[in-house]
Amino acid sequence: MKLTSKMTRPFAVLGISAALLYSGAAYAASDVSEKSVVTTYADIAEAIFEDSLSSTQALSAAIKTLVNSPSPATLGLARTAWIATRVPYQQSEAYRFGNALVDDWEGRVNAWPLDEGLIDYVSSTYGGESDENALYTVNVVANKFLTISGKKVDATAITPVLLSTTLHEAEGVEANVATGYHAIEFLLWGQDLNGTNAGAGNRPYTDFDLKNCTGGNCERRIQYLEAATELLIDDLNEMLALWRADGAARSQLVENPSQGITVILTGMGSLSYGELAGERMKLGLLLKDPEEEHDCFSDNTHNSHYFDQIGIRNVYTGHYRRTNGKIVSGPSVSDLVKKANPDLDMELRKDLDTTVAAMAALKSRAETIEAYDQMIGDGNAEGNAVVQNAIDKLIDQTRSIERAVTALGLEKISVEGSDSLDKPSAVFQ
Prior knowledge:
two-stranded antiparallel ribbon, 56% helix, single chain, mainly alpha
């Protein structure tokens, strides 16, 4: 349950001041090359996915405690552990666009939005059917046998294989998200039925209590939660291996470092513009729709947006603060741009810091005044303005990223677009 506007949330993560103060390390010109830059980029990816894996293993341990000793306290600890896993993972999203190996994998771990009626019980306000999704309310937790694409499916045992190969994006519907962070989030919080009023999802701990079961099918709900978490750990292990020494993702960049620089800037620009400013922020602001928020069950969207931006800055500056406080750093794209055009490097660094500050203001508001889904609500001029300011800063930094591409003499990058930014009227058609 969300706290009142004058209270600080118990799961605020990472002090804003530490993230705002980084100004970058200086490297000798002889140490800065395209190969050294992509090596730093790969080293940071490896560290991020190591941190994502270890934090998800901690989440798995917290879920085991919840299952063995269900209580408000153990459910709260599991939720806190889920939020902690989002800190490193969101910083990985700057690696998606341009890196096909990451982008193809991402849909298994961070797909959204999802039709939660596929997974478990939902409120009557959710609706009983969807023209786009025959599995809209199939409720895997409550049903041991399902019909998918006209075939009977035995779901007696809810396993990672069932989730990944049979249920995830079943019948070719992207909203059938059966795996990853958001499936786990829904199971831990339940639906957020508050609209733009205060409050997150409020699933009772007794939904996981075999002796005092609420919601029905507690044993199967536990099976689903444990299977989804096990699968997420497997998926993170897979991605981590790709960034280890001789891993395919690392090797592709190190073997063609010039192309690697383009990949880095493509990832920065596409996350900054089309994905974050557009699909994750402007779309919800245009529609005034609380469903259009990334971590919609937990009301953790402010952190997801904030750490996406930190991730963008990480890859430009070649600097990542690990969850244990240690720093991974090295020659960066910033160093290359500085050699080509010092003024532009200073401008882009300033733009990145300005956007971090705008996201920090959004994060602070969410933790002290109102949640993100309230900020984008109709009639909330002040909250809308905070979100729009962050969007504006993301757009500004994208233009500087594109100028950096030109300064480095690279081919023009293809930045992901968004109708909400490029053709707003199309959003309402």
